[in-house]
Specification:
2 helices; mainly alpha
Length: 151
């Protein structure tokens, strides 16, 4: 019976050793699979981070391009507005000069007309004062008319 027990014990030890070997192999396969999956996840994470950085850089470049374009357009609009303002200012000065010249010409004409009026008034002969009161009878202009009224 001891021999049978030893045999059973050895068979048990062999079965335990076989199970241990199988568990170790299974654990090594699981460990290898886990390592492989971890490496794949790390690579995927690295690729995702690289893609995210690329997208971020591209978005920054596009945003900067949009900002640069908007600033350029704003500068162009500002320059056009300044040019138009300067042109309108020159136009207003020109028109103001024209109006000043016209004013001076009109004042000169008025002065000349006034001087001509004074000269004309001075060159006219003296006329006797006419009495234009309504109380006195009118002097007939034509003697024939005066005779027809009295008759």
């Amino acid at each position: 019976m001891v021999a049978e027990l030893r045999e059973a014990q050895q068979a048990g030890h062999a079965a335990v050793a076989a199970m241990m070997a199988e568990a170790t192999a299974h654990q090594e396969r699981a460990s290898a699979h886990l390592t492989q999956q971890t490496e794949a996840a790390g690579a995927l994470r690295h690729a995702s981070m690289a893609e995210a950085e690329r997208v971020r850089q591209e978005a920054l470049a596009q945003a900067q391009e949009i900002i640069d374009r908007a600033q350029h357009q704003a500068a162009t609009i500002d320059e056009r507005a300044r040019q138009e303002f300067a042109w309108r200012r020159r136009q207003m000065r020109h028109e103001q000069e024209l109006l000043s010249r016209r004013k001076q010409a009109m004042l000169s004409q008025l002065t000349s007309l006034s001087a001509l009026a004074v000269q004309t008034a001075q060159s006219l002969p003296e006329l006797p004062d006419l009495n234009l009161d309504d109380d006195e009878p009118e002097a007939p202009e034509d003697p024939a008319q005066a005779d027809s009224r009295t008759a």
